[in-house]
Amino acid sequence: TITYIPLERSYRMHAVIADYLQPVYRRDNLEFHSEQTETLDPRWGPAPSSGLRTATLQGPLTVITHDDDQGGQSSPTEADLVAGLTSYFESRWPEKSIGVVTPHNAQQSLIKRLCGDTADTVDTVEGFQGGGQDIMLASMTVASESVQDDEGAWLLDHRRLNVALSRAREKLLVIIPQTLLEFQPGELSTY
């Protein structure tokens, strides 16, 4: 017999991120806490060429939305943003590890090609289970409403969301299309 012992504390992610994700953990009757409070030291300089203000990037959690509604299993818009951001963070904090997580292999390949060596790890949600980095970027990718309809159950699975968003020790950037934030699945009871 294997005894189930629920996770009560994490040393992997920043406390602000743990607090943000708490509703996801409550769904599984877990009270989740983190004692990780270290953040990136202030080496902020001019923002990357992606048109973002530096102030937007400060703090342990940043959500970046965009209006591109064409992305399916890959999004050149997000891949360009990720490449600019990983280059920016790598140039400011070369001693920090940088990871990128995305739901689809097609986006993973595109990001790897554009990022080169600026990200330590680029993987899908399934590939990132158990891993973590100092700085994490989550490229949520799926902007097309027809793809969202087809993949709704997969995209909104709280376990996948947990993996995608809980891997950052010091900084998490979520890059997400506005259409995905507004997505309403056909079967609400499924979620």
Q: What would you say about this model in short?
A:
The chain has 191 residues and is an alpha/beta fold. Helices cover 37% and strands 22% of the residues. The two termini are 31 Å apart.
Structure description:
This protein has helices spanning 15-26, 54-57, 76-92, 105-115, 125-128, 145-155, 158-165, 178-181, and strands at residues 9-14, 33-36, 61-66, 98-102, 121-124, 133-139, 168-177. The protein is an alpha/beta fold and 191 residues long. The strands form two sheets. It has a five-stranded parallel beta sheet. The chain has a two-stranded parallel ribbon with strand order 1-2. Helix 4 links the parallel strand 4 (98-102) and strand 5 (121-124). Helix 3 crosses helix 4 (105-115). The mean pLDDT is 75.
Could you outline the blueprint of secondary structure elements for this entry?
Blueprint: E1 9-14, H1 15-26, E2 33-36, H2 54-57, E3 61-66, H3 76-92, E4 98-102, H4 105-115, E5 121-124, H5 125-128, E6 133-139, H6 145-155, H7 158-165, E7 168-177, H8 178-181
Secondary structure: helix percent: 25-40%
**Which term fits the overall shape?**
globular
Number of strands: 7
Mean pLDDT: 75
Helix-strand sequence:
EHEHEHEHEHEHHEH
Largest sheet, order of strands side by side? 3-7-6-4-5
Uncertain regions spanning at least 5 consecutive residues: none
Q: Helix segment count? A: 8
Over all CA atoms, what is the radius of gyration?
16 Å
Largest sheet data: 5 strands, parallel
SS content category: alpha/beta
- Strand residue percentage: 15-25%
What is the CA-CA span between the terminal residues?
Answer: 31 Å
